[in-house]
Design brief:
Layout (H helix, E strand, L loop, with lengths): L4 E4 L4 H12 L4 E5 L2 H11 L2 E4 L5 H9 L8 E4 L14 H28 L3 E5 L12 H21 L4 E7 L8 H4 L2 H8 L10 H12 L10 E4 L11
């Protein structure tokens, strides 16, 4: 049996979809999440080890990795993020700092804590950015700045951890999830946003999980340092008109 893959944010929409995909291939998992009840239920169903963790707590990140049951690690997916939408005039320094801490610093610390295991296992790391890191949208200054940081982190760690560890990044467009509920629950808003994509729908968790599973698999063994867009073409295809 192969070494486990660590999934941070396992109880979120993408984390859960990725866990299911990996489980279907027989991949052992170590699940990490903030919701103790949801995590416990999921770990039992998936026959996986688990650890409760608030990634804004550096000690909790360390403890969650220490609970990992093996010396080698096949991969790590950091499926944690946020959507902070507000105009610059309303954004506070705390908005910027906490968003950066959650999206970038926590990811870096998680990889740092697992780096030795990843190197032993010739593992793969998958991070999540956003289309907003490369496309300008109103009211996105807080989250776009943090998500751009993830892209920088990806290329830096791809260089630093090579050749034993590959590091790649997925940049989604708006997808259906609890985090995006304020946008996707409004039918008119959701339809308007969907029409802005050349493939005119919102993303689904499994759209991103499918690519993440591939990047964690040895089939992608010559891919590192990349940011791959799963966005219905919105980042690179212009619509008529």
């Amino acid at each position: 049996m192969s070494n486990p893959v660590i999934i941070f944010g396992a109880t979120g929409a993408v984390g859960r979809a990725l866990s299911q995909r990996l489980l279907d291939t027989g991949q052992p998992l170590h699940l990490i999440g903030r919701d103790a009840d949801a995590l416990g239920s999921m770990a039992k169903k998936f026959n996986a080890s688990s650890a409760v963790c608030d990634v804004l707590d550096e000690d909790a990140i360390r403890t969650s990795i220490d609970a990992y049951p093996a010396n080698d690690c096949a991969g790590l997916a950091f499926c944690i993020g946020s959507i902070v939408l507000k105009p610059l005039r309303a954004a506070s320094s705390n908005d910027f700092m906490q968003t950066y801490q959650l999206n970038v610093v926590a990811a870096a610390l998680a990889i740092q804590q697992c780096a030795t295991r990843l190197k032993r296992g010739n593992g793969s790391v998958v991070l999540f950015s956003s289309i907003a890191a490369s496309q300008g949208f109103h009211n996105h200054s807080v989250i776009a700045a943090a998500k751009a940081g993830i892209i920088g982190l990806t290329v830096a760690l791809a260089a630093e951890l090579a050749p034993q560890v590959r590091v790649n990044c997925i940049a989604p467009s708006l997808s259906k999830s609890a985090m995006a509920k304020s946008l996707t629950d409004n039918e008119r808003t959701a339809e308007n946003i969907a029409r802005q994509h050349p493939l005119p729908r919102l993303g689904r968790p499994d759209d991103h999980a499918a690519l993440a599973a591939f990047l964690l698999n040895p089939d992608s063994s010559w891919i590192t340092g990349q940011t791959l867009h799963v966005d219905g073409g919105r980042s690179c295809v212009s619509l008529p008109g």
